[in-house]
């Protein structure tokens, strides 16, 4: 009976082949483990996609909110600018009107204290009266209105009480006389009317 034997060189080669095969198997197992770790379950992938979607929605919402705020700021600036322009148009004549009021006052005083029975003065007084009316018509076109509260209730916003007179004929705080007319410009007071106001007569 013959016995098969291996020489030392063949045995070394065989051991090297076995070692190499074991190394290849271990590398394959390690690669498989790494791949398994990197792979996610469908549920995990869906959860991740939902998270990314919510983050994108939040970004869009933040950007939209910023755009809305910017639009509101622009609208406020535009509205304030329009109001400033409107006020400038309305009250640009305020200084000029204040300079003009004493001229109207003097013309009215000239009529009030003149001798109206003097036939010689009548044409002159008529001319002055027409001039006053022309002045009033001209300034009224630009928003200047006369405050002449004769017989009205006293209003401290537009009237200045120069004296108080007891009276049983009218309700207390009624304007009995206007000493000087007042004026407004587009509803804003230029000059208060100077008035005499009634009070209840002493018993």
Q: Would you summarize the structure shown here?
A:
By secondary structure, the chain is an alpha+beta fold. It has four helices and six strands.
Uncertain stretches of 5 or more adjacent residues: none
Helical content, roughly?
55-70%
Mean pLDDT: 84
Strand % is 15-25%
Radius of gyration: 50 Å
| β-strand number | 6
When the domains are counted, the total is 3
Main β-sheet, spatial strand arrangement? 1-4-5
Report on this structure.
By secondary structure, the protein is of the alpha+beta class. The protein folds into 3 domains: 10-34 and 41-87; 93-142; 144-203, Head domain of nucleotide exchange factor GrpE (Nucleotide Exchange Factor Grpe, Chain A, domain 2, Roll). The protein has 4 helices and 6 strands. The strands form 2 sheets. Strands 1-4-5 form a 3-stranded antiparallel beta sheet. It has a 3-stranded mixed beta sheet with strand order 2-6-3, with no helix packed on it. α3 runs antiparallel to α4 (122-140). The relative contact order is 0.08.
Q: What tags apply to this protein structure?
A:
single chain; 203 residues; alpha+beta; Nucleotide Exchange Factor Grpe, Chain A, domain 2; 3 domains; 3-stranded mixed sheet; 4 helices; 6 strands
Topology at a glance:
Blueprint: H1 8-38, H2 42-91, H3 94-112, H4 122-140, E1 144-147, E2 159-166, E3 175-180, E4 182-185, E5 188-191, E6 193-199
Parallel strand pairs: 2-6
Antiparallel strand pairs: 1-4, 3-6, 4-5
Helix pairs in contact: 3-4
